[in-house]
């Protein structure tokens, strides 16, 4: 049943990329437990705007857990307390009346803060541009059913392809590594016959781009897997390692 | 102004083929000399930008999110239609064409829809080649499922994330072109004006949402792929940044707006829980394949669903539409939900819901089968409502979802402004008065992969375009108009937030111009809009400054445009005194409360010309002729 | 090859390979040390035979190289990881991925490095005039030394509890059927090695010291 709670928010405020940030406390009063976490922030922001204060900037878009736009580290956890959920899918029934809730941006050198809780994740786009595709021009495809893909292979590829590119894996990784994100893409294509012609080139290029962005190294701690809203598994990282080793050995 | 839809002559089946042959070609060596701006990176925008770049054009891509991959096409769940006829159940290009025309309630162009059906199969081929992990049969072939409004299984799907997978396919093609240097991406940009030089679209002015700076970009053609305007209703299934601004500003610059009152209300959304809700979450209508829709027969029956015996339940869709049952098109399903709720049979705490029950399907097919098909949708429902749909029936309610109306385009997808193309949901072209499920993805990708690459080229090859730089005075003029508007928003310093105005507008529109509309209500709403708009400009408050990351300012700008556009939508709804598809006028219904079309008076596309804010827009009619499918009253009984 | 060794994944592969070889060394080392339990003669005999073997020097250099690679590359990786997040979190709470072992790899590793220095100084370069057995048993009469030894072996257990299975993951050895067994084997292996090595000083202290 819905109830009303009061919270104190401890929020990271930072005017822009080049300025220093600081912690600011806000009261979130009369919050219905049926509200989503972002709707709670909306309510806090509406009150700030009416007071003439600068509201808290945060990224969000679809609010149904698929666009990957929302970020936030809530009480030390990327995408908040629930498993297999994005920040927009967190509801206030997960919070206790009177609690203080810490809200931080995703932290990584490769994800610089743009304002408050908004970070720049374009590093992911650049990694994708390095090789996250199958080179096939529009019009040059063969008839769809000439490529037969066993059901379990297609399902496994889909497991990897479900990645929404939110960057929570980077945020939660003790080393700010992007291996889960990159491995999901590598795995998706490595599992499909369409991906095989560019198999070696892709993994070498994407690894290189990933390192150039300044992400950390993978230490197999599985924090990424634990926060991933789409439950992308660690075995994709093993596949990435395997693909990279293979490609490095085969490279001329 | 005379509307010329440029529909090619000759038999329907050969129109597109002949037209492609007649379109002029750009010399391959010259393609790199042409610049094309694509605004929006959903299915239509990403696919168009990638395909144009593959041909050799220089493409500049603008998106409002932080990455092209996040456009709202990503949220489409159920699937994409194609006339492959893999299940051998009688599908064909002609049947897909027929279903779409009929589903759209005879308010779309035959030629466009036929082309869409023809192209549909190539889309599937293309997406598979890109590595889209569609669902498969054990033998490795592609799987299909059925969807509302059709009696064949022609929907291809990737779990409940088809839109995401198709968008990632188009996005990957786009990123490949970025790496090759033919596409430049401008993320976190919002298009705020279209710039015309000598009557042709030659560029845009966009606001950099991070720095707040205005940026002018010139091009030889501009392709708008900025989606629909459903967010005008405040509560909708659209993403927060989906808005009408780009289309509206183009409209103000001379592009006609067609059929704005054709909005789609999706029947299977999670009901509203409170007044602080920011969006409605849709669940794929594929749920209706196995779920049964019902309400208690007794009005105000407050018993939990499990305690209502079979005999006291009204499976109203199965009762009224024995042929299609729970798979009637969206408009029919939504309107019937409204009817039973209006009669007092609604369920749940707000009484604004009907049940979608899987008990029988679980019993028949087993829990694992249902979990495999709909697992992610069930999880989503549980997340939001904290109820377990495997045990209690889901509660659903209709919500604004898609807009069939949009900028008027000809057969080449060009608006009434030369050089301004409009693709995907942003245009009006293919869905008439109601879109069938799994057809939006098909149309967005058809436009982007297989139509625009030819027709934009045809325009460039056949038009003499002088050199225009972003330093041209017309860009300066647009920039100052845009920043003047921005400064005006910042200077009001009133007492209400833009969100508050948005909510007010949304609830007015939902009440008066939602699932059913009548003259009195529409007139009432029309009289209120100028008042709200006037108060907005007098009493809105926008914090912060122009030259910074300012989400309050972004929102205020969009709401200001909704307040202008709403009037057009209402006027269109008022003038169209017939019921068709998603537009249900209470004055025009059959004795058993079905939508009654008036083909004698309204068999046309209503394209509106902007004459100034608050001024009477001018209506231009494009008559619709049906040569291949005889006009008939839709029946799903 | 240089590009491989400089890459994020390549560095981890080097650490993993060196780590697995070091695991092999631990097995042989523990097996040899178990001669302590057999008796003075047996242990000294084994030690002498080992030292007479001309290949020992090669093995020692190899071992030193493995240690160096494992340690230096790990430190570099750690440095890069720190740089990858210049501003840390105010609050950080696991959602259940990491383990105590995985979170403390750098600390257990550094402790083991200190142990290694002390260990080599005591036993490799200590005065073994009365035979290695005496040297070992004498050293293990110091309760602080025994405590330090046991502490270090606990760290080794902790280090291996993550390191063993993590190395397989880094090398891409992963399979839904086998990986759970690799993880179980990792736990068993770390307990066995740590327990085995810790047993010796405790045995020497309580059994031979006359306390």
Structure description:
- Chain A is α+β, with helices and mostly antiparallel strands and 252 residues long.
- Chain A is built from eight helices and seven strands.
- In chain A, the strands form two sheets. In chain A, strands 2-1-5-3-4 form a five-stranded mixed β-sheet.
- Chain A is elongated and about 60 Å long.
- Chain B has 16 helices and 21 strands.
- A five-stranded parallel β-sheet of chain B has the order 5-2-1-9-17. A five-stranded antiparallel β-sheet of chain B has the order 11-15-14-12-13. In chain B, strands 16-10-20-21 form a four-stranded antiparallel β-sheet.
- Chain B has helices at residues 15-22, 43-55, 93-103, 110-130, 162-179, 245-252, 316-320, 330-345, 359-365, 367-385, 440-462, 473-492, 498-513, 519-539, 551-575, 599-602; strands spanning 35-39, 58-62, 80-81, 155-156, 183-186, 189-197, 200-208, 214-218, 221-224, 257-258, 263-269, 292-296, 313-314, 354-357, 394-403, 406-407, 420-422, 496-497, 540-541, 604-609, 618-623.
- Among the domains of chain B are: 266-400, Flavocytochrome C3, Chain A, domain 1; 473-612, Fumarate reductase/succinate dehydrogenase flavoprotein-like, C-terminal domain (Methane Monooxygenase Hydroxylase, Chain G, domain 1, Up-down Bundle).
- In chain B, helix 13 (498-513) runs parallel beside helix 15 (551-575).
- With 637 residues, chain B is an alpha/beta fold.
- Chain C is mostly helical.
- Chain C has a single domain (2-85, 100-208), classed as 3 helical TM bundles of succinate and fumarate reductases, CATH 1.20.1300.10.
- In chain C, helix 2 (8-33) packs across helix 5 and helix 9 (143-170) runs antiparallel to helix 10 (179-208).
- Classes of the chains: A alpha+beta (252), B alpha/beta (637), C mainly alpha (211).
- At the A-B interface, helix 1, helix 2 and helix 3 of A face helix 2, helix 4, helix 5, helix 10 and helix 11 of B.
């Amino acid at each position: 049943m819905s109830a009303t709670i009061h919270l104190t928010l401890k929020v990271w405020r930072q005017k822009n990329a080049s300025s220093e940030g600081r912690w600011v406390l806000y009261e979130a009063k009369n919050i219905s437990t049926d509200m989503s976490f972002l709707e709670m922030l909306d309510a806090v922001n509406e009150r700030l705007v009416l007071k003439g204060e600068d509201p808290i900037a945060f990224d969000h878009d679809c609010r149904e857990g698929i666009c990957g736009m929302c970020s936030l580290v809530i009480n030390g956890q990327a995408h908040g307390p629930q498993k297999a959920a994005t920040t927009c899918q967190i509801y206030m029934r997960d919070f206790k009346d009177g609690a203080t809730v810490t809200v931080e941006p995703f932290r990584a050198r490769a994800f610089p803060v743009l304002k408050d809780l908004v970070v720049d994740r374009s590093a992911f786009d650049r990694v994708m541009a390095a090789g996250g595709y199958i080179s096939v021009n529009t019009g040059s495809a063969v008839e769809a059913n000439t490529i037969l893909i066993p059901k379990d292979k297609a399902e496994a590829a889909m497991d990897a392809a479900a990645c929404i590119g939110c960057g929570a894996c980077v945020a939660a990784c003790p080393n700010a590594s992007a291996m889960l994100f990159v491995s999901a893409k590598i795995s998706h294509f490595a599992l499909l016959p369409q991906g095989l012609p560019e198999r070696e080139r892709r993994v070498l290029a994407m690894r290189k781009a990933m390192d150039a962005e300044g992400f950390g190294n993978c230490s197999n701690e599985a924090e990424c897997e634990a926060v991933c809203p789409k439950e992308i598994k660690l075995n994709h990282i093993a596949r990435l390692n395997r693909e990279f080793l293979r490609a490095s050995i085969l490279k001329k | 102004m005379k509307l010329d839809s440029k529909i090619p002559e000759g038999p329907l089946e050969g129109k597109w083929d002949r037209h492609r042959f007649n379109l002029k070609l750009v010399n391959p060596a010259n393609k790199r000399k042409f610049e094309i701006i694509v605004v929006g990176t959903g299915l239509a925008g990403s696919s168009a930008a990638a395909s144009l770049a593959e041909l050799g054009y220089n493409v500049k891509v603008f998106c409002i999110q932080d990455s092209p991959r996040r456009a709202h096409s990503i949220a489409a769940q159920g699937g994409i239609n194609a006339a492959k006829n893999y299940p051998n159940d009688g599908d064909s290009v002609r049947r897909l064409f027929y279903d779409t025309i009929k589903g759209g309630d005879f308010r779309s162009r035959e030629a466009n829809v036929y082309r869409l059906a023809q192209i549909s199969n190539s889309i599937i081929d293309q997406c598979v080649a890109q590595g889209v992990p569609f669902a498969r049969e054990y033998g490795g072939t592609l799987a299909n499922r059925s969807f509302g409004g059709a009696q064949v299984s022609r929907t291809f799907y990737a779990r409940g994330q088809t839109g995401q997978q198709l968008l990632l396919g188009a996005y990957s093609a786009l990123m490949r072109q970025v790496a090759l240097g033919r596409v430049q991406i401008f993320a976190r940009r919002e298009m705020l004006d279209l710039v015309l030089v000598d009557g042709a679209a030659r560029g845009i002015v966009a606001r950099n949402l991070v720095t707040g700076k205005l940026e002018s970009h010139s091009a030889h053609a501009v392709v708008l792929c900025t989606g629909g305007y459903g967010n005008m209703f405040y509560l909708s299934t659209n993403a927060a940044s989906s808005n009408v601004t780009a289309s509206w500003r183009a409209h103000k610059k001379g592009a006609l707006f067609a059929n704005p009152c054709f909005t789609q209300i999706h029947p299977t959304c999670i009901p509203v829980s409170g007044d602080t809700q920011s969006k409605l979450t849709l669940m794929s209508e594929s749920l209706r394949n196995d779920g049964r829709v019902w309400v208690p027969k007794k009005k105000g029956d407050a018993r939990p669903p499990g305690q209502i015996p079979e005999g006291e339940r009204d499976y109203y869709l199965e009762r009224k539409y024995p042929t299609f049952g729970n798979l009637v098109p969206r408009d029919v399903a939504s309107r019937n939900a409204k009817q039973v709720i209006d009669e007092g049979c609604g369920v749940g705490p707000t009484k604004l819901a009907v049940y979608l029950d899987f008990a029988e399907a679980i019993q028949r097919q087993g829990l694992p089968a249902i979990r495999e098909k709909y697992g992610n949708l069930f999880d989503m429902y549980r997340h939001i409502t904290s109820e377990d749909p495997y045990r209690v029936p889901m509660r659903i309610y209709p919500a604004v979802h898609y807009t069939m109306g949009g900028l008027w385009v000809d057969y080449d997808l060009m608006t009434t402004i030369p050089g301004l193309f409009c693709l995907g949901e942003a245009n009006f072209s293919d869905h008439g008065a109601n879109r069938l499920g799994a057809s939006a993805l098909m149309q967005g990708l058809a436009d982007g992969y297989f139509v625009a690459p030819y027709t934009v080229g045809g325009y460039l090859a056949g038009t003499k375009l002088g050199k225009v730089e972003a330093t041209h005075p017309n860009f300066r003029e647009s920039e100052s108009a845009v920043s003047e508007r921005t400064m005006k928003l910042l200077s009001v310093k009133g007492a209400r937030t833009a969100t508050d105005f948005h909510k007010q507008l949304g609830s007015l529109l939902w009440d008066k111009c939602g699932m059913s509309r009548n003259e009195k209500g529409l007139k009432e709403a029309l009289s209120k809009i100028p008042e709200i708009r006037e108060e907005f400009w007098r009493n809105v408050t926008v914090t912060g400054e122009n030259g910074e990351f300012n989400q309050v300012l972004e929102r205020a700008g969009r709401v200001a445009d909704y307040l202008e556009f709403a009037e057009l939508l209402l006027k269109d709804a008022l003038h169209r005194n017939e019921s068709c598809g998603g537009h249900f006028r209470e004055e025009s219904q059959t004795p058993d409360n079905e939508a009654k079309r008036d083909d004698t008076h309204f068999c046309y596309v209503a394209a509106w010309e902007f004459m100034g804010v608050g001024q009477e827009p001018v209506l231009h009619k494009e008559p619709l002729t049906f040569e291949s499918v005889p006009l008939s009253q839709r029946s799903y009984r | 090859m240089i590009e491989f060794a400089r890459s994020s994944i390549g560095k981890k592969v080097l650490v993993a390979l060196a780590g697995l070889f070091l695991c092999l060394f631990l097995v042989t080392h523990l097996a040899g040390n178990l001669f302590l339990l057999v008796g003075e003669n047996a242990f000294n005999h084994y030690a002498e035979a080992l030292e007479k073997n001309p290949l020992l020097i090669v093995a020692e250099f190899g071992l030193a190289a493995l240690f160096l690679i494992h340690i230096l590359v790990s430190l570099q990786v750690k440095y890069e990881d720190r740089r990858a997040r210049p501003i840390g979190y105010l609050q950080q709470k696991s959602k259940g991925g990491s383990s105590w072992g995985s979170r403390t790899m750098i600390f257990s590793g550094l402790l083991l490095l200190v142990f290694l220095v002390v260990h080599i100084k005591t036993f490799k370069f200590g005065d073994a005039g009365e035979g290695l057995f005496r040297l070992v048993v004498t050293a293990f009469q110091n309760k602080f030394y025994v405590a330090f030894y046991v502490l270090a072996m606990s760290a080794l257990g902790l280090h291996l509890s993550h390191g063993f299975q993590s190395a397989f993951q880094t090398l891409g050895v992963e399979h839904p059927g086998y990986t759970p067994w690799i993880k179980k084997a990792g736990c068993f292996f770390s307990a066995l090695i740590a327990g085995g090595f810790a047993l010796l000083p405790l045995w020497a202290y309580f059994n031979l010291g006359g306390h």
